[in-house]
């Protein structure tokens, strides 16, 4: 969770790695060398290395030139690569608040993606999703995790979560679709008072037009997403493939290829179909809140 990007011009991004990997695959399929690709751009071999490893932003003109040289004749694929290049440039240009916040360091890459996303689908098995948490719930989690000891540091964690939640409001709010395991609603993070307030906040936030909340009840039994929680990040650009973020105790995994991304999307949809409808979910949340003591 606290891994940082390489320093200097080797600061890759998820989008940059995906784009670079696509260009590398196309070059290999065309039987071209890095030096030959560099000659097409009138550049050095090292530039192609940096592009294929996602270390540098890419201009549309360079992407088009390489795709043409690799005999790519699929307009849809070219459009997807250009969309990735545009998103990656926007991601790198962003001078977000998270870059200067120590408590955001471990999740800075995800927050940057969240900042340029149009929609996020979140499956949470054990916790209330971060964008829907109250300050008290976040604070209790920070204390129990033990990653931050100083009270001011813990308040920094709370402030990071609060700033992220601003994406749910404003002139262009994030579309947020959360499917939450029922167990997360019973787990008394911070005690019953904190949890009751959290459940009330969850019901209130679920009333926003850009937020959809469904609960997977215990009685649903086994399901496709039993293996763990994840977020599927989508973008406005129609050709941009979803990116999946899987966070565990020891590491963060980014799913960066189209086939695996589609698998996660399918698993999410299957689990959502087993979940209660939004109105029934709210009734269950209210019932759990009223019975909490």
Give the structure's gist in a few sentences.
The protein is α/β, with parallel strands linked by helices and 293 residues long. The chain has 12 helices and 6 strands.
Fold and architecture overview:
- This protein has 293 residues and is an alpha/beta fold.
- The chain is built from twelve helices and six strands.
- It has helices spanning 14-30, 34-40, 45-52, 60-69, 75-93, 108-116, 135-145, 151-165, 182-186, 192-205, 258-274, 278-290, and strands at 119-124, 175-181, 211-216, 230-234, 243-247, 252-255.
- The chain has a six-stranded mixed β-sheet with strand order 3-2-1-4-5-6, sandwiched between helices.
- It is elongated, with a radius of gyration of 21 Å.
Helix-strand blueprint:
Elements: H1 14-30, H2 34-40, H3 45-52, H4 60-69, H5 75-93, H6 108-116, E1 119-124, H7 135-145, H8 151-165, E2 175-181, H9 182-186, H10 192-205, E3 211-216, E4 230-234, E5 243-247, E6 252-255, H11 258-274, H12 278-290
Parallel strand pairs: 1-2, 2-3
Antiparallel strand pairs: 1-4, 4-5, 5-6
Helix pairs in contact: 1-5, 2-3, 4-5, 7-8, 10-12
List keywords for this structure.
single chain; 11% strand; 293 residues; six-stranded mixed sheet; 2 domains; 434 Repressor (Amino-terminal Domain); Endonuclease, Chain A; alpha/beta
- Average pLDDT works out at 87
Query: What is the CA-CA span between the terminal residues?
Result: 33 Å
Which stretches of 5+ consecutive residues score pLDDT under 50? 1-10
Structural class: alpha/beta
Order of helices and strands: HHHHHHEHHEHHEEEEHH
Helix content: 40-55%
Number of strands: 6
What is the CATH domain class of the largest domain?
Alpha Beta
The strands making up the biggest β-sheet line up spatially as: 3-2-1-4-5-6
Count of spatially separate domains: 2
Beta percentage is 5-15%
Largest sheet: 6 strands, mixed
Q: What CATH architecture of the largest domain do you see?
A: 2-Layer Sandwich
What overall form do the CA principal axes indicate?
Answer: elongated
CATH topology of the largest domain: the name is Endonuclease, Chain A
Q: Give the number of helices.
A: 12
Rg over CA atoms: 21 Å
């Amino acid at each position: 969770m606290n891994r940082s990007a390489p320093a200097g011009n080797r600061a890759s991004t998820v989008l940059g790695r995906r784009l670079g990997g696509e260009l590398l695959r196309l070059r290999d399929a065309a039987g071209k060398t890095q030096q030959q690709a560099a000659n097409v751009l009138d550049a050095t071999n090292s530039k192609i290395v940096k592009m294929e490893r996602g270390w540098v932003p890419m201009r549309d003109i360079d992407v088009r030139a390489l795709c043409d040289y690799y005999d790519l004749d699929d307009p849809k694929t070219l459009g997807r690569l250009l969309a990735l290049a545009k998103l990656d440039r926007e991601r790198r240009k962003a001078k977000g608040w998270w870059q200067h916040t120590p408590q955001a360091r471990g999740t800075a890459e995800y927050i940057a993606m969240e900042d340029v996303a149009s929609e996020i689908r979140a499956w949470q098995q054990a916790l209330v999703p971060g964008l829907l948490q109250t300050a008290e719930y976040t604070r209790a989690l920070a204390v129990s995790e033990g990653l931050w000891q100083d009270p001011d540091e813990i308040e920094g964690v709370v402030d990071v979560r609060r700033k992220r939640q601003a994406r749910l409001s404003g002139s262009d709010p994030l579309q947020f679709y959360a499917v939450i395991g029922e167990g997360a609603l019973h787990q008394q993070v911070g005690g019953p008072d904190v949890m009751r307030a959290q459940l009330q906040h969850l019901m209130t936030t679920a009333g926003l037009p850009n937020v959809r909340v469904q609960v997977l009840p215990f009685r649903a039994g086994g399901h496709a997403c039993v293996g763990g929680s994840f977020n599927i990040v989508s973008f406005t650009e129609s050709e941009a493939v979803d990116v999946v973020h899987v966070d565990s105790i020891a590491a963060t995994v980014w799913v960066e290829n189209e086939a695996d991304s589609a698998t996660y999307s399918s698993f999410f949809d299957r689990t959502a179909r087993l979940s209660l409808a939004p109105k029934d979910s709210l009734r269950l949340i209210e019932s759990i809140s009223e019975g909490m003591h």
